[in-house]
Write a structure and sequence with these properties.
mainly alpha; Helix Hairpins
Length: 62
Amino acid sequence: MKTIRELNEKDLKDKIQESRSELAKLKVDAAKGTLRKESGKLKPLRHDIARMLTRLNEMKKK
């Protein structure tokens, strides 16, 4: 969360987009059944995206 707070709005949006694309790739792999080592990455990645979106909303309100 500390690193998320240090990012500006543009960097935060870029990071969200990057994380969402990674999540989409992981979901495709999970659907195929080829996801083995990264199976523990789905939930933390979703939580990180939520944290970034929360921070982005906090920045917009100020």
